[in-house]
Structure formats: C-alpha cells, structure tokens
Amino acid sequence: MKHYQAVLLGGAAAMFTAMGIGRFAYTPAITFMLEAGILNTAQAGFIASANFAGYLGGALYYTLRTPKKHTFEISLVLSVLTTAAMPLFSGLVWWSAIRLLSGFYSAAVFICATEKVYTALYSNNKQNLGGLLFSGVGAGIAFSSWSVPFAASFGGWEASWYFIGAVCVAAAFLSYRLAGGTSAAPRKVSEIDNTGIWSLPMFLLSCAYLLEGAGYIIAGTFLVDIIKSSSGSASAGFTGWALAGIAAVFSNLFWSKAGHRFGVFRVLMLLFILQAAGMLLPAFSSSVWAAYLFAVIFGGTFLGAVALAFACGRLMLPKGNTAPFLTVFYGVGQIISPWIGGLMAYRSGSFAAPMIFSSANVAAGALLTALAGAAYIRRNKCRS
Question: What one-character DSSP code corresponds to residue 186?
Fold first, then answer.
C-alpha cells in the first residue's frame, strides 16, 4: 500500500501532464501558430473545441465503463504522445483529430487520478487535502507560460510542442512511480441513488455549470492572445498566463474552505460574479495591469468553480452520481464556445466581443446558481 502523500504527489503530476500541459499548453502555443500563419483564430477555436469534445467523450465513456487495471498508465502514455505529435502533422483536420484524442485521454487520466487520490486520502482520513490534486493543473499552466515561448525562440512553434512533450515524459514517469498500480474503490451501483437528478434545483445548477463551461473556456483558450491584443505586448500575454497558473495552484483549497464556511451556493454565485467582472477588464481597458488582474481572476476562479459545483451537486444528492452528470453539461458548453469565440475574434479583429460574450454567459450562470440554491432550500422546507 503506497503512502497517501506519494499517491497525492503522483496524482498532481498526472494532472500536470494531462491537464496543465496536455490540455492547456495549447493556449500559449496558439500565439506562435498564429504568428506562423498556419492558423487563424477561427480555426484555432475549432481545434480547441475538438479537444473539449474528446474530453467530454472520455468523461462519458469512463463514467459508463469502469476504467481497467492499466487504464491510468496507458492513458498517461497516450496523453504524452498526442501532445508531442502536434508538429508531426499539418492541417486543420489532422490537428483537430490529435487534439480530440488528447482530450479523450486527458479525461481518462483525470478520472483515474481522482479516484486513486481520493481513495488513498479517504482511507487515511485526509480528504481535506484533495484540493492539492488540482494544483498540478495550475503548475502546468504556469510552466507552459515560459517553456512554450522559450522553446519557440529556438525552433518555432514545432519546437515548443516537442519540448513540452519531453517534459511530460518525465512528469508521467514520476506519476507512474508514485501513483501507478495503486487501486481505486469507486462506489458500487447499489450505493448510488440518482433519485432527483432531474429535479428543478439540479437542472438549474447544471445549466449554470454549462454557462460556466461556455464562458470560462474562451479565456482559457485565448488568454495569451487576449492580453497581447488588449495591451499590445506579447510578453505581457505570457506573463498573464503565468499569473493565471500561479493563482490556480491553491485556488481550489481557498474556494472549498469558503464554500464550507459560507455556503456552497452563495460562494459559487459570488465566484461567478467575480469571474464575469474579470472577463470585462481586457474588453474595456488596454492597461497591462487590467490584463494581469483579469489573468489572476481567471486563474483563481476556474478550478474553484469545478470544486464548488460538484459540492453543490453532492449537497443536493449525497448518494447521487452527480459529478458525471454535471460534467456532461460543462462539456457541452466547452465544445461550443471556443469556436464561437474564435470566429467572433476573426470577424471583428478583436477579442472584446468574445470576452463580453463570455462574461454574459458566466453572469447568467450566477443568476441560475442563486435560483438553484433558492429552489433547493424551498424543496427542503416543503419536505420538512
């Protein structure tokens, strides 16, 4: 039996590999692919949507089908390969296919790592440390903020993918050594009760989460170029991406504790309002400091939204399999929005309209969250 601290560190390394790099390194890499003239913003958004479609497919597949003994290890390897394979092919179709597969395997790693880590933590009564698992995502984002431009300065956009792919090999090996082979204990079918999964409070929360997925992901896809466009500085874009990653590292613990103390519905609503306000900063200001504040707010909220939404789901249906249900809605929002945002930016020549669109989605999510909380309280009063 491996020590829970080793499993936690291995899980964070897996998140670094498959999510922080495998999923989000595309954001700084876009800048150099756009500069090389091999993509426009509409095409970049379409490729991002393909990645999120793959993620949704993987989440659904492994929700309906229990991961096998070596799914974690195999998915880690394939996640690394699909990251390093980007320069080996060219064209919208090939890149979309590679990013689709990358999304699928990142979902598999996410699900397996989460089960492994939380099984180890719960067996040691250390579940309060679960938020540290997702610090790997923020660390990967922060790492890509300098590693991608560093490698691109030597060999263009192709070198950046090769370099981060090589780093992922080392991170994946560390993850395998620390967390590979550990068992997970997912709930038995008999322990799950999804009665009320389609109730009004749960439906409102799911729609709010869909709007969050649609809103945050435009910033998550184009943040470097959004800051570059609003401030006129390419280096500011990469600095902003680093700030987002640093803010993301421990944000999950902060929001989880706030939700526990002040109420998860109330705190999730406030998080959405803060995120929506932050998205308006680069749309209406060309100040580099406004751009940096936007980056910090984005990094400090997008992982917290996941943790709090799942907590709301667990509160409403303690025995329900609510996380996969919410993930489907979130995934739908992620698939649609990057292509729309990229197309809006391509046609207008600015990211102002996409950011206003994103902010409106998240603000609407805040309203629906408040309604979901009110409906949940009302339903409980009627039962008592």
Answer: P
